[in-house]
Amino acid sequence: MSKWLVEKEKVSIRKRVLFFLSTIVLLFVVSNIYSIYSEHQVQKEFDRILDRYYTINRFMISFSNGITLYEQYLDDRTDSNWVAYTSNEETVEKIIHEIMRDAQELPMDTYLLTQSVKNTYAAYGEVIERGDGAISQKEHLDEVYTIAELIDESARQLLQTNMTHGFETYDKLSAAIELRKLVSIDLMVLVAIAAVWFAFFILDRVLNPMVHLAENVKAVEREEFDIPDLPVQGQDEVSQMNRSFNSMKVRMRNIIAQLKEKQELSEKLHEREMAVIQQEKMMEQAKLSYLQSQINPHFLFNTLNVISSMARKERAKDTNELILSLGRIFRYNLKNESQLVPLSKELTVIKSYVYIEKKRFGDRLNYIVRADLDLECCFVPPFTLQPLVENSMKHGILHKDEGGFVALKICQSEENVIIRVLDSGAGMEQDQKDALLHGRKFAKAGGEASGIGIGNVFGRLKLVYPECRIQIISRKGRGTCIEIRIKKGECMHEKGFDCR
Prior knowledge:
By secondary structure, the chain is α+β, with helices and mostly antiparallel strands. The protein has 13 helices and nine strands. Helix 4 runs antiparallel to helix 5, helix 6 (237-292) runs antiparallel to helix 12 (452-464) and helix 7 (297-313) packs antiparallel against helix 8 (317-335).
């Protein structure tokens, strides 16, 4: 018994609903089919009774018309009257055949009366055939009238008998109709009871639990997790849904609690990270300002010596131009408070610097510039190119008696802005290149330290453009090429860009 209850609890609501709906539909269909069939049977029986009434009545009328037509024929013996009479007799015979067709299904007295009508009519036909015999017309008509009266009397009795039988049949059919009505009503009541029971079942096992579930879902949406658990009865779909909701509610409560804890920790960590980032920015800004503030004292002293020498030799235009060029360089360094400047300004200060150096080296120095992009739209930190050009002249050209050239080439690829500083100077060893790339100083012959200006440039570029790439290609005694690649998305800006 307990096993049966367990199996019953496992039956899904879907199967139960399908079973109840199928039962209700089946009862409804059976009730309607039974009612239709009963009505059809009653109607069929009434139609059969009325058909017999109508057939017997037609026989009596047609037979009476036959007597009249026969009398007319005896009066003038025309062919037309005879044809009319014979045609009527054919109709009467067909009617008799219809009467006899279902006579065996009737009671015995009705059947015997039907046979009597048939036999008497056959005798009537024989009398008609003897009409041209030896007897007189009057005797013949008397004989015809006599047998016609017998046929009429038998037909009336047959009609009366059929009426009596029809009333009896009607009484039986009425009783059957009442019984069938009761059966139909019982079936309809059964269907109604099943429908009401099904409605209560759906209300109790489906709709009410769904309403409670919806209310609990709204409560959970309001983060009210202390509501009682939904009831779980059996293994049907609603119970499984309630069980899953109860479990989900507990998990959501735990997850939300964990999320709140994580959010609080995240906010604290974010505050700390922002503080660290702010400190790092301040340190980078300080480092950048420190690097930018460095000025090569050797360049300043050498320049002053050159101006002093020229001032002793001539007191005119060249000396004035040297002083102006030096002033432009100092003003560029002292008044430039921006972190970025367009390349056009860098080339302007390099031009002033090269003018001074050409006065120093004379024809030993050749300077070449080539730019294939809009210099006003490309930005770099101040004094990025001047130290590179200075290094090429100072360490590449100065120590060669025949002099050489320094070339500055600026171009662009699909992704990068490319800056190359080339010279035909003395070149450098691998350890010197590595020291420059890593920001270390290295010692030149005579104990002079070198690499401060180049390290300054590389350090500032890495701070401003972390993804920039710097490469040094050099061969001892042949020259050096310093190549800088900066992403176009970082250094290319519209004219009028605010670089503060």
